[in-house]
């Protein structure tokens, strides 16, 4: 059984359903058609007794593996917002429903997170029962750099990282590698990239007594020698457990140590408004179920594009994408421009739902 999509390849071979994200020139950034195809595939395999497990990977320019998914198609999001295209709303509703589905498949779902794993790539992999990283993995939720927030369930899975790692990753958007991903609870094991083709082939050709045996087969490839990282966990907890964004940045800037200075410099480049929104998001997310978190994020993302009266000029997200991906001047004009000038009332407004509860686009989750 082969799919007709060219951007999402799918096939059942043996007892496993295989998915390959196939938009390598865009680092497999998710388009609306890709989201819809992934939803269709997973729903069709969820209750198929012949499919004992599901495996997902990404193609790179060089072929299979090497790049998982760099996030959502931000150029599409920018143009849709400027044009008033209703598919902008569809994209987030359907993507978040997909994120929820990956957590509730009822069978092994194995994500091969080789290469770039960011934003939407985290959304389609964090629900996996096995999250496999490699020495080439570069993982991040970098949304504050484009005036957005770590969505696709980020409020749920980041907030469940140890200590205050969730606040650190969400606010800075810093990239982490395999060992840190495992230490932070965002991956289950590391496999050397050169072993992935043989593992994939073994899944295609093997006969497995149960879904659990499939997972055990993959776990046998895990590298037991993955080094524990020097991940500054004590520093992260010390600073990112502080109550306010301004307090976090002030304390970092008071230090003369290189890590603190670099971290403070990173935060000063992010959207001041969205730093405040994100800190609130992560801390609210700790007490929410996945479904409630995704509903909160659906409210938030609509407000990112439509909260301010003139969205073309006043949306932090549209401005952030413009600076990074459209004009590429890397000089976003944030409003306000300083962390110290953020109005808490505007922060609070991001969490107001524009829909009655029963009419919420994700009410069915």
From TrEMBL:
Keywords: Hydrolase, Isomerase. Gene3D superfamilies: 2-enoyl-CoA Hydratase, Chain A, domain 1. GO terms for biological process: L-valine catabolic process. Coiled coil: none annotated. GO terms for molecular function: 3-hydroxyisobutyryl-CoA hydrolase activity; isomerase activity. Signal peptide: none annotated. Transmembrane segments: none annotated. Residues 16-351 form the Enoyl-CoA hydratase/isomerase domain. SUPFAM superfamilies: ClpP/crotonase. This is Enoyl-CoA hydratase/isomerase family protein.
């Amino acid at each position: 059984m082969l799919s007709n999509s060219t951007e999402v390849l799918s096939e059942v071979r043996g007892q496993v359903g295989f998915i390959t994200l196939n938009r390598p020139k865009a680092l497999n950034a998710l388009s609306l058609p890709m989201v819809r195809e992934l939803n269709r595939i997973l729903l069709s395999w969820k209750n198929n007794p012949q499919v004992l497990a599901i495996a997902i990977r990404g193609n790179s320019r060089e072929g299979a593996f090497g790049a998982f998914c760099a996030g959502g198609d931000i150029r599409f999001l920018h143009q849709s917002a400027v044009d008033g295209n209703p598919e902008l709303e569809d994209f987030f509703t359907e993507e978040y429903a997909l994120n929820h589905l990956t957590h509730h498949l009822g069978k092994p779902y194995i994500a091969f997170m080789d290469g770039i794993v960011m934003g939407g790539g985290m959304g389609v992999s964090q629900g996996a029962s096995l999250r496999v990283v490699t020495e080439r993995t570069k993982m991040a939720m970098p949304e504050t750099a484009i005036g957005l927030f770590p969505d696709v369930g980020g409020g749920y899975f980041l907030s469940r990282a140890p200590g205050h790692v969730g606040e650190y990753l969400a606010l800075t958007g810093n990239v982490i590698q395999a060992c840190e991903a495992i230490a932070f609870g965002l991956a289950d094991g590391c496999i050397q990239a050169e072993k992935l083709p043989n593992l994939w082939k073994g899944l295609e050709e093997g006969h497995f007594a149960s879904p659990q045996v499939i997972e055990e087969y993959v776990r046998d490839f895990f590298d037991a020698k993955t080094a524990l990282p020097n991940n500054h966990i004590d520093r992260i907890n010390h600073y990112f457990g502080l109550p306010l964004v301004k307090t976090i940045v002030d304390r970092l800037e008071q230090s003369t140590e290189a890590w603190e200075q670099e971290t403070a410099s990173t935060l000063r480049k992010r959207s001041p408004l969205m730093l405040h929104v994100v800190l609130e998001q992560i801390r609210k997310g700790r007490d929410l179920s996945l479904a409630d978190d995704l509903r909160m994020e659906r409210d938030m993302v609509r407000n990112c594009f439509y909260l301010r009266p003139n969205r073309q000029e006043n949306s932090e997200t549209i401005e952030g994408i413009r600076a990074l991906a459209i004009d590429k001047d890397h000089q976003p004009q944030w409003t306000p421009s300083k962390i110290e000038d953020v109005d808490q009332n505007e922060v609070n407004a991001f969490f107001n739902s524009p829909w009655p509860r029963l009419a919420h686009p994700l009410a069915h989750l």
